[in-house]
Amino acid sequence: MNLEKRYAEHPEDVKHYDTAALRSHFLFDKVFIPDEISLCYTHTDRVVFGGAAPVKKELALAGGKDFGSDVFLDRREIGIICIAGTGRVQAGGQDYDMKKGDGLYIGKGVQEVRFASRDPADPPKFYLASAPAHTAYPTVFIPIEKANPRKLGDQANVNVRTIYQYVHPAVCQSCQLVMGMTVLEKGSVWNTMPCHTHERRMEVYFYFDLDPGAVVFHMHGEPKETRHLVLRNEDAVISPSWSIHAGAGTASYTFIWAMAGENQTFDDMDVVPAPDLR
Asked: Could you report the per-residue pLDDT of 43-81, keeping only the tens digit for each?
């Protein structure tokens, strides 16, 4: 299991970052490595995110010194969404067959989590997001049909999209993790506009289903001191609570968002009108 670390940054410091520094601190572009679990540990709310990509090997989540326990979920919860292929997740001795669009929530205390492929010719890609947890909630399998859909946006603002809430109070219990997937319609490019901040929660974005040659301009920084990072297919980016949250692609795409912090209220956000941005 590969683990990279990112440390929390003060917004005053980030004002002085060039492109290379922004990418070094906030971008994670090694989400899927065949037959490995590849994770990033950010000290911003101690969220862990990344991917499991079993092809010929069965992969197991492992704890260790970085987590203070030999069991990864000893004091954590995790959300999983399959973004490609077909595979199996084993959690606490129970098998869950998963295809693209299926999700799974696993609560604190589950001793063993394993990932496997059903067909090496069509291997799965499991995107993972984990946050500290202090209560054990039941494991819940969440196919996309059981996710909570919310259709937002309009064509005039090129942001027609459906938000599928997976790990969310409307679907299952969790301690602080909130996780879902947003699918943009063809011809729409903004994942949200006007943009917003939410000082109560950090967020990680993971972009996928992006056509070759297409990119997403992920907006970053304080509302009056904005920056951007150029992301490609299957890149993830850390958005601290003080940063704006928004992005626009050169083509349609899908992204998974995961949040952790003070509350689980999806609409608790501070909208920033576009004329106020700098």
From this structure: 999 999 999 999 999 999 999 999 999 999 999 999 999
Amino acid identity of residue 147, one-letter, is A
Q: How many structural domains comprise the chain? A: 1
C-alpha 76, offset from chain centre: 16
Q: Are 81 and 102 in contact (CB under 8 A)?
A: yes
Sheet strands side by side (includes 246-249): 225-231, 216-222, 246-249
The rounded distance, in Å, linking the Cα atoms of 245 and 191 is: 9
User: In angstroms, rounded to a whole number, what is the distance separating the alpha carbons of residues 18 and 24?
Assistant: 10
Supply the pLDDT for residue 69: 95
Query: 21: part of which helix (H) or strand (E)?
Result: helix 19-26
Q: Residue 223: which region, alpha, beta or left (left: phi > 0; alpha: psi -120 to 50)? A: alpha
Q: List % helix, strand, coil for the chain (3-state, nearest 5).
A: 10, 45, 45
* Widest distance between CA atoms in the chain: 53
Q: What pLDDT score was predicted for residue 199?
A: 87
Query: What Cα–Cα distance (Å) separates residue 150 from each residue in 132, 162, 188, 218, 267?
Result: 27, 5, 16, 22, 12
What's the pLDDT tens digit per position in 248-261?
Answer: 999 999 999 999 98
Question: Which residues does the chain have with pLDDT short of 70?
Answer: none
**pLDDT at site 184:** 95
CATH number for 12: 2.60.120.10
End-to-end CA distance of the chain: 40
Cα(102)–Cα(224) distance, integer angstroms: 38
Answer for the pair 104, 172: CB distance below 8 angstroms, yes or no.
no
